[in-house]
Design brief:
seven-stranded mixed β-sheet, 2 helices, mainly beta
Length: 195
């Protein structure tokens, strides 16, 4: 049975952003086609990836390490969205996504700079399993905006070998106290066995 005890959290300050890139359908590429060259730098050393999403067009943002992308469908929100995504250390930075043991901070703001946590259309998180990694071992947890719990998600295997999960809401990045490895394993097993 999944652990329902909320993890202590503290909201993080807004993420720093150096540039905003507009996304249009012609620029969108599936996550499997994204090539990331880091020259040995880690995603955290590269800095945030940013995107400006037009509500009429939708778009996507990909992690600097190439592990995943987040697809935002048209009409997911009624206003322009500014997204910032960065790798985060669990003890040194705020996070709201955990993918295969790696932590990330995703911040979504509207045109007035207000935090956006709920969406009219679900966002689609698409994960590209690293070479040599069995897709059945990939885990995803998302910080729930209501409970403050880093909640495991059930992944869908896509025919192209990627994995996906729909997200109708996501909490602001927060500093969380991590559950034990036993709790994470038990929660992931409970999600896998759910219908």
């Amino acid at each position: 049975m999944p652990s329902t005890a909320p993890l202590p959290l503290q909201l993080a300050p807004p993420l720093a952003s150096e540039s905003v890139n507009a996304i249009s359908p012609s620029q969108h590429q599936p996550a499997s086609a994204v090539e990331v060259q880091t020259n040995g730098a880690t995603a955290a050393e590269i800095g945030p990836v940013t995107a400006l999403i037009d509500p009429a067009l939708g778009g996507s943002i990909s992690s600097a390490d190439g592990l995943f992308s987040l697809q935002i469908p048209a009409a997911a929100y009624s206003d322009m969205l500014s997204l910032s995504l960065i790798a985060a250390g669990p003890s040194t930075a705020a996070a709201n996504l955990q993918i295969n043991g790696e932590f990330y901070a995703l911040q979504v703001l509207d045109s007035a700079g207000n935090l956006v946590t709920d969406f009219a259309q679900p966002l689609v998180l698409v994960i590209v399993p690293p070479p040599g990694v069995d897709s059945s071992t990939i885990t995803v947890a998302v910080l729930d905006p209501t409970s403050g719990v880093l909640a495991p998600q059930k992944l869908q295997l896509i025919p192209d070998g990627t994995l996906s999960v729909d997200l109708s809401s996501i909490a602001a990045p927060a500093y969380v106290q991590l559950p034990s490895a036993d709790t994470i394993t038990a929660d992931a097993a409970a999600v896998e066995s759910s219908p």
